[in-house]
Every structure is written in structure tokens, then in C-alpha cells.
Amino acid sequence: MGNYDGIKEIEIDLNGSGLRIGLVMSRFNRDICDGLLASCAQALRQHGVKPENTVLLTVPGALEIPLALRQMALSGKFDALVAIGAVVRGETYHFEIVANEMASGITRVQLDTGVPVANAVLTTETDEQAHERTTIKGAEAAACAIEMANLLGKL
């Protein structure tokens, strides 16, 4: 815990034991998403989240992620959620629409429900860029979900 001129800082807590985590994964760009899921699940376990306290929903694509997240958040069964997906730029404007609306929807779920959502939806120019980021982004999202669930629990 830091002390900045008398200001009390709430300590970062990455202990996931006892937390219930919901995952929503897009089936579009499945090979990339499977890599994100594997690294996320591994990191959740390393931080103490039990497999029986983790639930995975899959949805057709990135635009469907926010609705599934919202339903999970409203269920009251989860301390935090993780969005998993990949939106890879094509030759049309569709990339911008999907990436922007999906990200906006994820943010809205958090703000409307008070349940933290870690965003592990990659938005890249190429499949290669996405594959390079799967291990790091999945693990970062797991840590983010745990940290935010614990932080909100302390407030």
C-alpha cells in the first residue's frame, strides 16, 4: 500500500480464490479466440479461481458479446466477467462498426450493472497480429477481472 502525502491507497489484490468469473467468447475467428481463452483460463487458475467457479458462454460474433455479458451481470452470479473475441480488419467499413459498437456495449454493461468486465477482444489489422497477442491479452484480462472484482468488493 502506498502513502502519497497522507492519501491511503487501496492495495492491488490478485487473489481470485472464492471469485465467480463469467466468460463470454465469440466463435468468429475461433482459433484466435481459443488462444485467448486458454491463456485467460490458465491465468485465472494461477490466481486461485476454481474451475467450478468459472462459466463460459459462446456467441456467434463480437457484436453478440455485450448482450450475453449483460445477462450474466444481471444474474447476480458473477463477481466479474471477461469478454473474449477477435475483430480483424477487412477491406470494408464493417471492422469499425463491429469494433466500436462491441467496445461501447462492453463499457455500457459495466456502467449499467456495476459488474466489472475485462475486455479481451482483440482489434487488429491482421490475423498474425491477433495470434501474437493471444497469450498476453488473455492473461491480462484474467488479472484485470480479478483485480476489479476485489477492488469493488473493498469499496
Mind explaining what this structure looks like?
- This protein is an alpha/beta fold and 155 residues long.
- The protein has four helices and six strands.
- Strands 4-3-5-6 form a four-stranded parallel beta sheet, sandwiched between helices. Strands 1-2 form a two-stranded antiparallel sheet.
- Helix 1 (30-46) runs parallel beside helix 4.
- The chain is globular and about 55 Å long.
In short, what is this structure?
This protein is of the alpha/beta class. It has helices at 30-46, 65-75, 94-113, 127-154, and strands at residues 3-4, 7-8, 21-26, 54-59, 80-88, 117-124.
Main structural class: alpha/beta
* Major sheet attributes: 4 strands, parallel
Radius of gyration: 16 Å
Q: What is the overall pLDDT average?
A: 95
Total of helices: 4
- How many angstroms separate the termini? 15 Å
Q: How many strand units? A: 6
Provide the succession of SSEs.
Answer: EEEHEHEHEH
The shape is globular
Strand content: 15-25%
Range of helix content: 40-55%
Strand order of the largest sheet: 4-3-5-6
**Weakly predicted, low-confidence segments:** none
